[in-house]
Amino acid sequence: MPVSRNKKKKKKKKKKQNPVYGKKTVQKQNKERLMQKLQGTKFENAKVQMNRFKHSVSELILDYGAPLLDECKSNEDFGKHVGFLVLCWNIANVPDEVERGKQIEEIVDNMLEPTRQKLGKEFEQVRTQFIDDMDLWVQRKILLYDEYKYMVVNYDLTFPDGEPYLTVASTKANV
Q1: Per-residue confidence (pLDDT) for residue 51, from 0 to 100
Q2: End-to-end CA distance of the chain
Q3: Residues 107 and 127 sit within 8 Å (Cβ to Cβ)
Q4: 2-49: per-residue pLDDT in tens?
Q5: d(Cα 58, Cα 36) in Å, to the nearest integer?
Q6: Do residues 104 and 138 make contact, with C-beta atoms less than 8 angstroms apart?
Q7: How far apart are CA 56 and CA 163, in angstroms?
Q8: Is the pLDDT score of 132 beyond 80?
């Protein structure tokens, strides 16, 4: 089961790093994957640098999402939750509260629209729950991590040696 970096730090015994998945090797592989993901986007000509900011954005995201990520039972769940957390993190950087609310509703509506007929009468209840969940995580970011104004442009999540390793491409938010 994947664990957050907080829990990994608490472990008393330090694991020996596999030479194939040493930190530098994983960083290089993830940087290359991120550069490929950025191809065809407005960021394709961006210079990708590792640890350019004072804070590690990937560590900030994992710490911010630790309560949710600690409950994951599989790598697949962990990956889905990281995507959700990145989305909430970025929305929280929108300075206008009304605009944040509109963005949350638009994202939820786009995400749930394909399931509208299948959900039937439960659609509005599910929609409201999704909006409330997103708003909760947006508010958590604002409350605890508001000083970190980074927008995540893209990310890559791998599991070398079964442990999550998150690499993000980010930029300072224009707020």
Answers
A1: 58
A2: 37
A3: no
A4: 655 555 555 544 444 444 445 566 667 766 776 676 677 665 665 555
A5: 19
A6: yes
A7: 18
A8: yes
pLDDT surpassing 70 at residue 139:
yes
Q: For residue 92, what are its two tokens?
A: 């929280």
Q: How far apart are CA 79 and CA 83, in angstroms?
A: 6
Q: How far apart are CA 128 and CA 134, in angstroms?
A: 10
Whose structure tokens read 């749930």? Answer: 112
Residue 122 CA to residue 49 CA, distance in Å, equals 46
Lookup: tokens for 165: 């390793």
Q: Which residue do the tokens 């929305």 mark?
A: 91
Residues 6+ apart with CB under 8 A from 174: none
Q: State the chain's mean pLDDT as an integer.
A: 83
Instruction: Collect all residues with Cβ–Cβ distance below 8 Å to 168 and sequence separation of at least 6.
Output: 34, 57, 58, 61, 86, 152, 153, 154, 155, 156
Q: What amino acid is encoded at 129 in this protein?
A: Q
> Which residue(s) pair with 154 in the sheet?
169
Tell me the C-alpha to C-alpha distance, in Å, between residue 131 and each of 11, 46, 49, 93, 135: 36, 33, 34, 17, 6
